[in-house]
Amino acid sequence: MMNIANMGQSLVRASLILAFGAALAGCNASGDAPAARPPLEGARIGGPFTLTDQDGKTVKDSDFAGKYRLVYFGYSFCPDICPVDLQKLMRGLAQFEKSDAARGAKVQPLFISIDPARDTPAALKPFVARYHPRLLGLTGTPEQVAAAAKAYVITYNKVEGSAPDRYLMAHTQLAFLMDPDGKPLALVPLDDPSTDVDEGAPDKVAADLAKWVT
Known about the structure:
By secondary structure, this protein is α+β, with helices and mostly antiparallel strands. It is 36% helix and 19% strand. It has a single domain (4-30, 40-212), classed as Glutaredoxin, CATH 3.40.30. It is built from six helices and nine strands. A hairpin with a 4-residue loop joins strand 1 (50-53) and strand 2 (58-60). The chain is globular, with a radius of gyration of 17 Å.
């Protein structure tokens, strides 16, 4: 059963997807069948950030110039949603890499923590290693994390738990595919957060990557 924090994540994600969908529907009201365009083309999503990776190295958005970026915000202490989403995303990326190694190598996966108090580089390193050898875990000061989240229209808040260090983080549950210039292309499908990873979600992720990564 989903807890209150997870329900909040799903509601926020659903509202954002509906908002994006409504905006895009308005752009194609002519009834014609135009060539496929990136769903998030022109959206004000993404921007400069300065964070710290799992090895303690300072990382800037400009470090990924020329790379597609698969971006997901979450936290390593998440009891269910984030691990499942990361499995879907990283298995999908692995499938894409297997089918087309050259294009797969163009995609840099990024996990940006919204829980910098607990997600130190030392905590992130073993966490991201579980999912993909190239998954980069990023954290930073609360201000740095807040700035990155704002740029990606991600909201989050602390949900108090049974002890000071046993809290949850409610957050927007979205995965973004950004182009080599750091512009948004599409929301990568995550499906229902209550499902597990063996229901075709990795296939959908791989198909989306194949569609937009050139």
